[in-house]
Each structure stands twice: as structure tokens, then as C-alpha cells.
Amino acid sequence: MRPEYVVHTAQEIIKIRRAAHMTALARDRICSLVHSGMTTKDLDNIAGEVIRSMGGEPAFLNYRGYPGNICISVNDEVVHGIGRHDRFILKGDVVSVDVGIAFEGGIGDTARTVYVGNEEDMPEDVARLLEYTQKSLEAGLTAAHPGGYVQDISRAVEEVAQQAHLGIVREYVGHGCGIRLHEPPDVPNFAQHRKGPKLVPGMVLCVEPMLNLGSHKVYTESDGWTVRTRDGEPSAHFEHMILITENGTEVLTRV
Ligand code: MF3
Ligand code: CO
Ligand code: CO
């Protein structure tokens, strides 16, 4: 039977912490290199160089057959966008960058969404999307503590998303992480009936709200990967990895 959750050893946590820190640096470096006029394939190539120059391996590449170094999801693309030669990034776009790195036995996984262009030009609804997706993530991180439950995280994310009238993607969820990219448990961005596993020291979780400006409904494109909103409204994705400790939580992907 699939275990309900994974508790990592002290030795594993040392590796996971290093990989997560590297992934956070790579995420911010890659985001800083996003500019209008480049293609998403250009960005994916740059991401591969950034990751390898740090000594890491792109953890998403070949994962279940995924063909990119990272995931790049533009505007109505929610997650799992693959870099393409014919997909130009333009001013006014909202670009989600999701980075996974394998480094010396540990795995890091973190995501961020950036606006292309001057902040002052950002439409109000896009600013709300980005601000509240980030706030929902922070609420989820704050809600996590040893002795609590996965559901505490889910509920906290959901509350912020609902207050901001953003659609919560249901088909994709956060997850355990650390030695493998996806480990149990699931960490949904909405409260379910079950409390889910208890949070205990040594658990490593990725909390990753995917919120839409419009409806929560999504579909997968014919490439088999790219997930898009049904109504064509933009979507945002922020992801951090946390370690549950004896005293609280440590965010492993904050720099
Ligand atoms: N980035 C996703 C996550 O955060 C996983 C991407 S797997 C890939 O869990 F194969 F699509 F790259
Ligand atoms: Co991710
Ligand atoms: Co993840």
C-alpha cells in the first residue's frame, strides 16, 4: 500500500535543504531573465543552463515523459507549459515559472509568477490575481504546524482565494517532496472532508496554489501537458517547499 506520508531522516533533510535552496536561487534567477521578445523555448534553454551551472539536474525533464527543463505557463496556461519555439513572451503577459532540481540526492520544487513589463502598467485584476495567489500561499505556510493536519493548510489557502474571488484549480494539488519529486500526501488548495495526515517533524510539503482570475475550470491541451483555463482568463501559480520541524515550520525555498 502507498504510505500516507513520508517522514524524512536528518540526513535526508540536509540534502533536501540544499536542493531546495538551490532551486529557490534558480527560480529567482530564471524569473529575472524573463523578457518580452524571447520564446518560451529560449527561457527553457536558459533555465537548463542556470540549473546545470549550479550543479543541479532539471528534475522535471523526462519525469513521466515531460520534455522540458522547467514548466513555463503563460496567461491562461495554468501549469505544465512546455517551452516552444513559436510561443513568444510579450509585454503584459503573466508568466508562471515552475522549477524542479535534483541535487546530490535531494529534490527542490518551487514556482513563481511574474508580470512582463512595468509594474505601473499592470491591470488591476492581474495585480489582484498575483497578490492574492501569493497571499494564499503564505496563509497556507503559516497554517502549517506540527500536530496540525494537512487540511489546515488547504483551508487557509482556500479562504484567501475565496475572499479574493479567484477560481481554485482542483485537478492539481501540492504534495510531499524531498527524495522523489512527488511523494505522499496530496496537499489540496481547498478543504476536503478528510483532515488528511497529521503534520509531524520531518515531513516536507510543497504548497502550491494555482488560482484563476475567472472560473476554476481547466482542460489539458492536445500536447498532453499544458493545462489551460476553460474561460481563457489568466492563472497564477506560486509554490514553496516547507519542512515541518519540532517547533514549527521552515520554508526551504525562501532566499
Ligand atoms: N511542477 C509540478 C509540481 O510542482 C510538477 C511538474 S512535473 C512535470 O508539482 F513533469 F510536469 F514537469
Ligand atoms: Co513545482
Ligand atoms: Co510541486
Structure description:
There is one protein chain. With 255 residues, the protein is α+β, with helices and mostly antiparallel strands. Helix content is 28%, strand content 25%. It has 4 helices and 15 strands. It has helices spanning 10-32, 40-53, 124-143, 150-163; strands at 57-58, 71-74, 77-79, 94-103, 106-115, 167-168, 174-176, 183-187, 204-207, 210-212, 218-220, 227-229, 235-237, 240-244, 249-251. The chain has a 5-stranded antiparallel beta sheet. α1 crosses α2 (40-53) and α3 (124-143) packs antiparallel against α4. The longest helix is centred in the N-terminal third of the chain and has 23 residues, at 10-32. It is globular, with a radius of gyration of 17 Å. Bound molecules: 2-amino-4-trifluoromethylsulfanyl-butyric acid and cobalt (II) ion (CO) (2 copies). 2-amino-4-trifluoromethylsulfanyl-butyric acid is lined by residues 60, 63-64, 66, 71, 80, 98, 100, 109, 175, 206, 208, 239.
Brief description of this entry?
With 255 residues, this protein is of the alpha+beta class. Helices cover 28% and strands 25% of the residues.
In DSSP terms (H or I, runs of 4 or more residues), the helix count works out at 4
Across the major sheet, the strand order is 8-7-9-14-15
Helix proportion of residues, in percent? 25-40%
Report Rg: 17 Å
**How widely separated are the two ends?**
37 Å
Proportion of beta-strand residues: 15-25%
By DSSP, the count of extended strands is 15
pLDDT averaged residue by residue: 98
Helix/strand-derived category reads alpha+beta
The profile of the biggest β sheet is: 5 strands, antiparallel
Bound molecule types: 2-amino-4-trifluoromethylsulfanyl-butyric acid, cobalt (II) ion
Overall 3D shape: globular
Secondary-structure element order, as H and E? HHEEEEEHHEEEEEEEEEE
Ranges where pLDDT stays below 50 over 5 or more residues in a row are none
